Structures
1.
Amino acid sequence: MSIQDDTLLVSAGRDPAANHGVVNPPIYRASTILFPTLAAFKNRKQQRYTGLTYGLHGTPTTFALAQAVAEVEGGARAVVVSSGQSAISMVLTAFVKAGDHILVTDSAYEPTRVYCDVVLARFGVETTYYDPRVGAGIAALIRPNTRLIFMESPGSLTFEVQDVPAIAAAARARGVLTALDNTWGTPLYCKPFRLGVDLSIQAGTKYIAGHSDLMLGIVTTATEELYRRVRDFVSQVGDCPSPEECYLALRGLRTLGVRLRRHEQSALKIARWLADRPEVARVLYPALPDDPGHALWKRDFGGACGLFGVLLRTGSEAAVAALVDGLRWFGIGASWGGYESLVIPGYPSGSRTAVPWTEPGFLLRMHVGLEDADDLIADLAAGFQRLAAAQA
Ligand SMILES: *Cc1c(COP(=O)(O)O)cnc(C)c1O
C-alpha cells in the first residue's frame, strides 16, 4: 500500500536515528564543509547532487525540507530557495536564453509578470500572456522558440482554474517545459506531476511555513535531470535559504494537513455566507459548485485552501474602507497562508493584457485563518453594516 499524505507529512525528511534520536532534523549552520584529504576535496564536485560541498549548495537541514516537500508533492527532487519570488525567477530564467519565448498565464501573481516584463525582457526573452482558460488551445500560441509555459492555478487574485493536464500535454508534444505556481494548491491538495507538469513552485512562505514569520521558496522537479539544471542555476546565481527558515518550514509542514482542512472548512462556510449576501456580486472560489472553475478543481485538486476573492457590488472605495478598516479579526496585509485571517483589495483590470478583466465590482481577496468561523462571520456582518451606513 502506498503511504498516505498525512503519514508522509509527519515522516518525510526525518531521520532521528542519524540525529541522536532527536525528532526534528536539527539546524545545521554551515559555510565551510571539511574534507578528510586533498583528493576528497578535489573530487567534491562529484558529490554536488548527493552530499555536502559548501553551505551555499545546501545543508542537511535544507536537504531535509527539500526531500519532504518533494515526497509530499510527488516530484523527483526539490531545491529550496530564499523566497517564493526567487523560486519563480529561478524557474523563469534557468531554461531560457536571449531570443527565446515563454508563455505566462494572464492571471499570474503580479511580481511574476513584473519579472518577465522588466528583467527577462531586458535579456531578450519575450513573454506572451495567455488566457488562463485557454486549455488545449495553448498549442496555437506555441512558437518554434517557445521554451517554457508558466501556469498558476488557480490565479491567486482572480482564481481561474486552468486545465493543467491539457496545457501540459500540448507543451510536451512540442518539447516545451511546463512550470506551475502551486502555492494555492499546496503539495497536499495539488499533485502537479500527476497532471504532467515538469516544475512546481511553492511559496513556502505561505501554508508550508503557516505562521507568517518567514520567507522561503521551493522548486520541485519531475526528474533528476531537471533537478540538476535548477540546482546548478540556483547555485550560479547564489541564492541560499537560511537553515533556520528551513527548520521552521519543516515544522510547519508537519501540521499542514490539519491546518489546511480547517482553513478549507471555515473558508467554505464563509464563502457560502458571503455568496448569499446582497452586497456580494460573486465569490471567486473554485470549491463553490457554481464557480466556473469548479469542475476542473474537482478533477485536479484534493481540496481548497483558505484563500478566495469576493466581488462587492459597490464601486465606492470609501464604503469598502468603512467595511474593511473596522474589521477586528481580519488584518490588512500582503501574503497569506498563516494561521490568521487577512483581507486586501485587488485591482486585476490594471494588469491584464491577454484577456481584459471586465467583471464589475470591487474585489477583495480574503484569507480565512484558523479563528472560529462564526466569529469571522459576525465580524464581516458588522462590516456590511458599516458599508451600508457609508453608502446611505
Ligand atoms: C506569495 C506568492 C508568491 C511569492 O512568495 P514570496 O515568498 O512572498 O516571495 C508566489 N506565488 C504566489 C501565488 C504567491 O501568493
Note: Residues 69 and 187 are 7 Å apart (CA to CA).
2.
Amino acid sequence: MGVVLIERTERLEGYLAIRELALDLRWSWSHASDVLWRELDSQTWEATRNPWGVLRTVSYDRLDNLLSTPQFAGKLEELLAEKRVAELAPAWFQHAHPTAPLSTIAYFSMEFMLSEALPIYSGGLGNVAGDQLKAASDLGIPVVGVGLLYAQGYFRQMIGPDGNQEALYPVNEPDQLPIQPVRTSSGEWLRLQIDLPGCTLWLRTWEVQVGRTKLYLLDMNDPANPAIYRCITSELYGGGPETRLKQEMILGIGGWQLLRALGIDPQVCHLNEGHAAFAALERARCFQVDHNVPFAEALAITRAGNIFTTHTAVKAGFDRFAPDLMKKYFGAYAENHLGIGIDELLALGRQDAADAREPFNMAYLAIRTSGAVNGVSALHGVVSRSLFQPLFPRWPTPEVPIGHVTNGIHVPTWDSIEADRLWTDVCGKDRWRGDLSTLEVDIRETSDRQLWRLRRISRQALCEEVRSQYLRQRVEDGEIEGGEDDADSVFDPNALTLGFARRFATYKRPALLLQDPQRLTRILTSTERPVQLILAGKAHPQDQEGQELIRLWNNFAKRPELRSRLIFLRDYNMRQAEWLTQGADVWINTPRRPWEASGTSGMKILANGGLNLSELDGWWQEAYAPDIGWALGDGKEHGDDPDIDAMEADALYRFLEEEIIPEFYDRDQDSIPSKWVGRIRESMARLAPRFSANRTVREYTENFYLPAAQGYAARIETVGDASRGIARWKEQLSKFWPKVRFGATSVEETKEGPSFSVEVYLGGLSPDMVKVELYADGEAGLPSHIEAMQRQRGGPVTTGLYRYTARIFSGRPVSEFTPRVVPYHPLARGPLELPNIIWQR
Ligand SMILES: *Cc1c(COP(=O)(O)O)cnc(C)c1O
C-alpha cells in the first residue's frame, strides 16, 4: 500500500510540475522544455507548438509512463527548478532601481501576440504588447497585462482558386489555450459584472503566465449571458463600430475592475493605443469613490499615472465613435457614476468641445487623461506632434507634448536556436537581461565563418518550412494528392532569399516590388545567381484594395517559371513570421513614408543575421547606415504620387540588381561573401541591441513609468488640500484666462545683449500660476530658444499688472523673440494638461 501511495504522490507532483511548465509561456522564448513536449506527443507538438494543448491531448497512460521514466522525470525536475530560480532571482529592475516606489504597471492592449498557441492578435500592435510583456519579465519590471480573450481572434486566411483571399474563423478552444480561469480564494471562478444599456452582463476572467509577468484576459462568452452578448468578444477588429465600442468598454472598464477585484492597485497605467483609454476613466471613477472627491479632481490626480502610446501615423487610424453611440453607452455612466454630464465626457474626446457633431476620438481621450504621451519611433514622434497639434492651438509644433520611445522586439522570442547558440557563445547566457552595454563589442568578435554558417543553417531551415507549406497549399488546391512530394525541386537553400511579410494594407505598398513584373521575373529566374522571394500577409476582410494586392501576387505566383522561386504563404501568422525572419537574407519593407509608425518585422531579422532593404520610414529612419543595409526613398514625404512609387520601384530593382545580388554572390576562397558578412556583423552589433524590447522597456521604465509613479504619488498628497491641487488650478486659470493680456513692452540694448521688459495683466490670477517666456523659433535644425522671464520684485505695478524682464545672450536678433504667457503649476505637465497660451503678437 505504502509504495503505491508514494508512487501516486510522485506522479501527482510530476503532473503538477509539467502542468506548471505547460502553462508558463516562457516556452515561447526559452526552448529548453521543447524536448518534453516532443516526447509526449511529437505530432501534436509539431503541428501546434502548444505545450498545454499537448498535455490536454496526451493519454494518461502515456503521461504516467513518461513521468515514471527517470530521464523524463529528471529533465522535468531540472526545468522546474530553473523556472523557480528565474522567477525569484533579482533582475535588472531590482538592481537598477532597488528603492523605486513602483510596484505595478498595468499594461492595457486590445491585442497581445505572445505565441501562435494563443492567437489573440492581428499584427504589429499585438507584437509590441507581447514582446514588451516578455521583456518586462526578463528584466523584473512589475508589469501586468490586461487584454481580451477572443473566441475566434483575428480572421484566418485561405486563398481561393482565383487568387482571392477568403476569411475563416476557426474557434479558439479555451480548454486548449495556455490560459486558466482566475479563481477567487474560495476557488470560485472570478466573474465580473458590467452594465451595458438595459442589462447587466457577466465577464469571465482568465490569466496567462508569461514568465514572471501575468496577463489577464476578459471575455463575454459566458453561458449565463444572453446569446447576442456572448459574441461581443468573438472577433478581433471584426464587426462594426458598436461592437468595437463594447469591446473597448470591456477592455478599459472591465479591465480596471478586474485589477481591483484582484486587489491590484497599479500606480502606472500604460494605454497601448487609444483603444484602451476607457481604463483612464474607470481609474478616475474608482479614485473618486475611494477618496470622495469630484471627477475633475480624481482625473487630475490619476492622469499623472497614465501613459499613452500612440501607434498611428494618420488621422484615419484613430478610433472614433458617433456622439449618439457614445450617449447610448456612456450617458448613464457619466451622470450616475462620474457625476458629470455626458457633454463634459464627450468634450474629452473632441477637438472642439462645443461641436456637438464631432465624433468621440479615443486618442484624444487618451491624451486628455494621460500624464505622458509617446510615439513609437523618432520620426513618429515628429509626425504625432503634427497630428495632435490641433489639440494645442497656437503652440509651436515642436512643443506639442508628445515624445517617443522607439519600439524593439523581444530577441529571445525571434532568434533562431542557431542564432541563440552563436550569441550565447560570444555574449553569454544572460545577454538580453542586462543593460546590453557590452554586446556591440562582443558580437564583433564573431568570425566570417561563424556568421556565414549561421546564415546557411538558417536559410536551410526556412527552405524546409517553406517546402512543407508549399506541399500543404498544393494539397489544399487539389493539385496533388496528400502523399505526393515534389517539394525537393522547389526552393534552393543556397539561393539569395528575400522575405516580404506583413499586413497587406495599401500604405505598405505590397505591390511595389511587382511594378515591373518582367523585371522581377528576370531577377528571380536567373540560373547563375538565383534569387527566391517568400511573401505572406493578410488584408482586413473589409479592405478591398488590400485584398486586390493579394490577388495580384497570387496570380503572379502561378507563372510556371516562378514555381520554384516565388511563393505566397497563406495565413501569415506568428510561427511563419518566426521562421521567415530567421531564414531570410534580405527583408524588404516598402511603406509609404511616414505611415509606418515604427514597423517591427525588420527588427526581428537583426539578431538572425538578416539585412534590411527598407523605405526610410519608422524605425529604419533612425537605424539605417550605408554599411548595414539599404534605404529606399529620399527621407521625404510625397503622398501617394504614382511617379514617386515608380521611381522607388526602380530603385528597389536597382538595389537588387546592382548591389544586393552581386554582393551576395561575390565569394572568397572559402565561398564566403565577405563584404556581405561584414554588413551582417555590423547590423547585429549596432542594431540588434538597440532595437530590442529590452532597450525599449528600460526606456519606458526610466523615462515614463518611474516619473509617472512619482507624479501620481505627489498628486495624491494634494487630496484634501485644494489650494495645492491641480484641479483647482485648472479651474482658476480657465476662469481668469480671458482677462490675461500683455501691456507695454520695451527692449533696451545693453552691452551684454538686448534686455526685454514686458507688462502682463493677470486679472485675478496669482503670478505663481503662470510663466512668462521669450520664445524664438528653432532654425536650421536647432531647437527653439525659450527664455524664462523674471518677475520684477516688489509686487504688481498696479493691481493685477506685473512687469517681467529677461536678457538674451544668444546673439539672435531681437525681432525673432516673442513674449508669451503660459500656465504653470509645479506638479503639472506643460501644455498637456492645460494648453492655454497667449502671445504678445
Ligand atoms: C512582426 C509581425 C507583424 C508586424 O510586422 P510589420 O512589418 O512591423 O508590420 C505582423 N504580423 C506578424 C505575424 C508578425 O510576426
Note: The pocket of pyridoxal-5'-phosphate is lined by residues 123-124, 127, 502-503, 572-574, 577, 599-601, 604 (CB under 6 Å).
3.
Amino acid sequence: MPEDIRNRLGLRPVINVSGTMTSLGASIVGPDAIAAMTGILPQFVEMGDLHRLASRAIAAATGAEAGFVTASCAAGITLAIAATMTGSDLAAIEQLPDTTGLKTEVVMLTGHMVDYGAPIDQSVRLAGAELVLVGQSTSSHAYQLAGAIGENTAAALYVVSHHVAHYGMIPLATFIEVAHAKGVPVIVDGASEYDLRGFLAAGADIAIYSAHKFLGGPTAGLVAGSKALVRATYLQNRGIGRGMKTGKESILGAVAALEAWGRRDHAAVRRRERAALDHWLGVLDGRPGVTATIDPDPTGNPLDRLKLRIDPAEARISAWDLVDALAAGDPPLIVRDHEVEHGFFHLDPCNLHEGEEFLVGDRLAAELDAAQRRNEPLISCFATRVQRQEDGILAWPD
Ligand SMILES: *Cc1c(COP(=O)(O)O)cnc(C)c1O
C-alpha cells in the first residue's frame, strides 16, 4: 500500500460509507483514469481533436451521435440549456446571458426541483433562461406540461434521481412525447444513473452524467446526444462555458473512466457490495433498537444499501447522534444520512476500499455497545444539530 497522503496533510482519513458525495471528494478514481491523466498532463494536444476523441468515446458508450466533456453535470445542464437557446450561432453564444431575441423558457416538473449541493434552477438560470414549473410537488399531468409549453420554450428538462419526488411524476416516455409534439428538445439530468443508454434510447435529445460518480472518473460532466445540440453545447466554451471548461487531463480521464466502465466486471462488484451488506447484517443481528434491512436503490441503479432504523429508547441513542458519533470517531465513518430526522440512515458500500467494510462493522459495533452503557439515552435536539451544521458552513475557513 502506498502512503496515505491524508496523513501528511493533516486531513482526517474518513471512510466513505455514504455513496458518491461531492463533499467527500465524489468517488474513488480508478487506475485507468489516473494513468490517462498522468500520461496527458505533460503533453500538448490540439484540444479540438481531444474533444473529438471524447465525443467518439461518449457516442460509443451511450449510443448518442456525439458527446462533450464539461466541468460537471451541473455545468452540462447550463450549457445544454444554452445550446437550445443559441444553437450554433456564435454571436448569440457570445451574447449570453443577455437573452434578447432568444427563447428563454425551460419547463420542468415541480417534483424535479432538486438540490444536488446547489439548486438545479440556478443551473438553468445561469444560461439566462427562466424555469417554468409544471405540476405540484408530488403530482403532474401531461396536459399541464403541454399547457406550459409555448412559443418562448427553449427546452424541457427531466431529472432522474433519488432526490426527486418518487410518485406522481410524468413518465419520461410521456414527457418526451409531449415535448416533441411541440418541437421542444428534452434534456435528461441523469447525473448518478448507471444507465448510459436508456434515456437517449427513449428519445431524449440530450442526457447528462457526472464522470465522478459511479464511473469513478475525475470531476467532469458528460453531455451525450444529437450532433447538432452537442455541437451547440461544445461551442458554449466560446461563451459562458469558458468558466466551466475542462483541461486535457479531465477530458482524457473521463474518457478512460467511461471505457473502463464498459470493461468492468459488474457482477463481481455487486458480489463484493453484497458481501459488505451481509457482513454488516451479521454485526447488527440481535442488537437492541437496530433494525437493518437491505434497501434497493430508488431509481433502479444496480446497487443495494443497508437501511438502519434506530429505536432511540432501545438503542439508547438517536439515529442522528449515532451518525455524529460515527463521524467523530476513529476512523471517522461518514454514512448516508439525508433522511436521518425520520430515525434511519443508510450504509452505502459502493465507494469502499478493499477491507474497509470490516472497519465499518467494528465501528458500528463499538458505538452501539457504548450507547448501551449509557444511563440515559442520548437523544439530542435535531433542530440544534441542523443549526450547528449551518453555522459550521458559514464559519469557513475557520
Ligand atoms: C450529483 C448530481 C448533479 C450534479 O452533478 P455534478 O457533476 O456534481 O455537477 C446533478 N443532478 C443530479 C440528479 C445529481 O445527482
Note: The mean pLDDT is 97.
4.
Amino acid sequence: MSLLDHLSAKLNAIAAQSLTRTLRRADGGTAPRQTINGRPLLMFCSNDYLGLAAEPAIAEALAEGARLWGGGSGASPLVSGHSAAHEAVTDTLAAWFAPHIPEARAIGFCTGYMANLAVVTALGDEHTEIFSEQLNHASLIDAARLAKAKVTRFPHADLAALRTALAASTVKVKLIVTDAVFSMDGDLAPLPGLLALAEEFDAWLIVDDAHGFGVLGAKGRGSLEYFGLHSERLILVGTLGKAAGLAGAFVAAHATIVEYLLQAARNFIFSTASPPAIEHALLTSFALIEGPLGAARRANLVALQARLRDGLMALIDRHPRLGWHLTDSATPIQPLIVGGNAEVMALAAALESAGLRVPGIRPPTVAAGTARLRITLCGTHTTADVDELLSALERAAAAQEQAA
Ligand SMILES: *Cc1c(COP(=O)(O)O)cnc(C)c1O
C-alpha cells in the first residue's frame, strides 16, 4: 500500500469520528479581541493569562533585546549559546524559588515540552519508578514513555491509590510526576498531600506548573507559592509561553538536581539555546508578573472566574436536559463539559458564527464522552466580555435543546 493511501485512510477515520483538527490563521497578535482568518473575534482560548503577550513593555523589551543581542543564540547552551541574558533569567528564577526549594537553582529550556522530556528522562533512569498522574499533560506522558524507569499511573487526585503504589515499590528512586493545574480541567493537584507522601515514602515530586506560573500566588510565582510549599523534594517545571507572555521554560530544583540536568539532559545538551532577546524580555515579564500590573490582572481574573462560573451554573440549571456540567476549577481554565464530539464542535461553531472563539476539546486530549469547551480567561478580559460569552452560550444552548 502506498503511504499516501495509508494516510488518507487514517485521515478519513479521524474525520468520521468528528476529530479533524484545523489550523486557523491569526492576523494580529494575541489579545482578547483578535483577528482570525480575517475576522475579528472575542477570544476565550489563549493561555496568555495575564495579557502580557500584548503588553507594550514586553514588545519594547524584545526590540531592545534584539538590538543588544541580535537574532539567534547560535549554539546549544554548553557550546556558546548561554548568554548573560539567559543567566539573568535563571538567576531571577532561582531567587524566586529559594523560599520554596532549599539551595534552589534553575535551568532554561526552549519549551515546556522540552523541559518535561528533559527532567523526566534524565531523572527517570533504570533505578527509578515514575508515579504518573492520570490527567498529566501529553508532554509528561511522552516523557515517561521515553524514560528507562518503570512507570505506574495513579488515578486523578487519588492520594490513597498513590500511597498504595508507593508502599508497594521497591526501587531506589521514586518520582511522583503531576501537573499542578490540569490543563483541560482547570483543577489543582493536591500538592500538599502529594508532597507529604513524597516525604513519607522518600520520593521526589515533579510539578509541572505551566498554568500556575504567573497566575497563582500573591506574587504570581505559581502553585508552590499558592500552597506555601517548602521542600528539597520539589522539582518545579515552569513554562514561559503562557502567563509570562513570551516563550521558553525552566526547571527549578535543588542545585544538585539542576547540575545533573546540565550534565545529562539530552534536550538541554543537544538543542540550540533560545534567542537571547527573548531572555532579555523575560526579565521585563518577571517584573510585571510580581509588580502591581500582575497583581491587578490576577485580581481581575479571580473576579471574572466567579462571574463566569455563576453565569454558567445558572445556564446549566436553565437547560438541564443538555447534561452539561462544570469542573471543580478555581483557575482561569473553566471548561464546560458537553459530552459528545459532534455536540461540542457544533457549539464551538455556533459561538464562532456569533463572533467568539472558544475551542472544542475532544478525545484523545480528554476522555471519551467528556468533550468540552475549554474556556480560558485573561486578566485583560472585561466583565462585558464575559457577559457576551454567557449570552452567546445561552442562545446556543436554547438552539441545541430545541434540536435535541
Ligand atoms: C503547555 C503545557 C506544556 C508545554 O509547554 P510549552 O512551552 O507550550 O511547550 C507542558 N505542560 C503543560 C501542563 C502545559 O499545559
Note: The chain has a mean pLDDT of 97.
